Amino acid sequence: MMLIAESGSTKTDWRAVDNTGKIEQFITKGFNPFHQKSTDISAEIKQNLLPLLKTEVSEVHFYGAGCSSAVMCAVVETGLKECFPASRVFVEHDLLAAARGLCGHEKGIACIIGTGSNSCVFDGVNITANIPALGYILGDEGSGSYMGKRFIADFLIGKLPDKLAKDFTDKYNLDKDKILDAVYLQPMPNRFLASFGKFLFQRLDEPYVMNLVRQSFADFFDRYICRYPDYQSMPVHFTGSIAFYFSKILNDVADEKKVRVGRIIETPAAALVLYHIAK
User: Fold this and answer.
1) Cα distance between residue 255 and residue 214, in whole Å
2) How far is CA 28 from CA 25, 56, 233, in A?
3) What element of type H or E holds 93?
């Protein structure tokens, strides 16, 4: 059996393909080697994935957030081999998963906008250009963590409209001390910040929220997409929960920036299965 995983910082989408071509889907927490150790990764897999697998795994193809260097890939690979000691394990960046799933064998720009964000130019085989996204502190424009960071900061300094601030307080019961603890002392602060995406999505009729989302996407286009040479000559594709659920606003901002949007999908996992079966 072959396992294919597409992992962001929030969740991992697993697809198991057996020798007959039957495909099963599983979900676990997301993994990011910048925030988690190999033991954290193996513990999650042992608890929430291994008990569900009924056939011996021969290959694991893992595409993950943060797997941007040999050192970071090794963190994930060690965790995977602890769970699949007899399997061949391959670890790649989630950006390559996005490019293969979104572009297929065609040239284009592939973007991830979920908990974090990233982008690249893909020539149909390889990633040929990538402006680093820099993570949730220095970058990740357009993402859930970016929107959450700006929203939470405005809440703490009293910049939110009164009704929106009251709705937020009533729903989450968070004060300054709890928020700063989650951001600066607890693990996975990017997940915490991105967790408010649903709250924002449900309040798009609020002018403040609409402006926040639009500006976040505008920042993403200005800092990344519009800096790729010839970006207007190829389609720009998107994957990730934020891109998918806020797609109308994303399309509107893209039109303003004269960006030609191609596919917008929530996850590239299904397309990756077809890629690996064909390969």
Assistant:
1) 12
2) 10, 19, 38
3) strand 88-93
Q: Which of 38-42, 182-186, 265-269 has the lowest mean pLDDT?
A: 265-269
d(CA 190, CA 113): 13
Residues in the chain: 279
Distance CA(253)–CA(250), nearest Å, equals 5
Q: Residue 116 and residue 190: Cα distance in Å, rounded?
A: 8
Start-to-end CA span in the chain (Å): 15
* Residue 133 and residue 118 in contact, taking contact as beta carbons nearer than 8 Å: yes
For the segment 195-254, what is each residue's pLDDT rounded down to a tens digit? 999 999 999 999 999 999 999 999 999 999 999 999 999 999 999 999 999 999 999 999
Is residue 85 helix, strand or coil?
A: coil
Taking alpha carbons only, the member of 272, 267, 270, 212 closest to residue 243 is: 267
> What are the tens digits of pLDDT across the range 109-160?
999 999 899 999 999 889 999 999 888 899 999 999 999 999 999 999 999 9
Q: Which CATH number fits domain 2-97+269-278: 2.60.40.10, 3.40.50.10700, 3.30.420.40, 3.40.640.10?
A: 3.30.420.40
Token couple for 261: 């949007």
Distance CA 220, CA 214 (A): 10
